[in-house]
Amino acid sequence: MGFDIQIDEEDKLRQAYRTRVPGLDIRINSKRGPLDFPVSDISALGFAFEDNPRGYSPGQEFTFDLLLAKKLFLGDLKAKVMRVLDRGIIGCNFLVMERRQEIKLDKLVLEVQKRLIELRKAKRAAE
After folding, report:
1. Could you tell me where the beta strands, DSSP code E, fall in 51-109?
2. Which value, to the nearest 10 degrees, does the dihedral of the CA atoms of residues 71, 104, 109, 80 take?
């Protein structure tokens, strides 16, 4: 007995839960010095940030630090630009991470998910 699974192109774009983390920024050390960008959303696999003017192009790789409330959360991470949207949104995938970095990132995303669930429950209870 066999079966066939087909995945739509849209499903390939979202392979992990994405969330917005208030106060989360990336810091890229450039020739002009350190540049901070707010993170639009993040998942265990990647993130998006806004860059105007757009100084990044698909395929470009870079090293950055992840800041939470302006303090170093994870350092020396590597990413690859996967897409650049017209609105100046840069979509990136994380490149190879150390296991401890993966665990810390997963924990951050999970904590945000838990808080969002709690807020939704509280909102429903209040109605």
Report:
1. 61-68, 71-84, 89-94
2. 80
The one-letter amino acid at 9: E
* Residue 9 domain flag: no
CATH number, domain containing residue 78: 2.40.10.220
Global pTM reads 0.75
* Host domain of residue 103: 15-126
* CB-CB neighbours of 103 under 10 Å: 11
Structure tokens at 1: 């007995």
**pLDDT per position as a tens digit, 18-61:** 778 889 999 998 888 898 999 999 988 899 998 876 678 899 99
Q: Which two tokens stand for residue 22?
A: 């208030």
Q: How many distinct structural domains can be found in the chain?
A: 1
Cα–Cα distance between 59 and 80 in angstroms, integer?
A: 6
Distance CA 88, CA 91 (A): 10
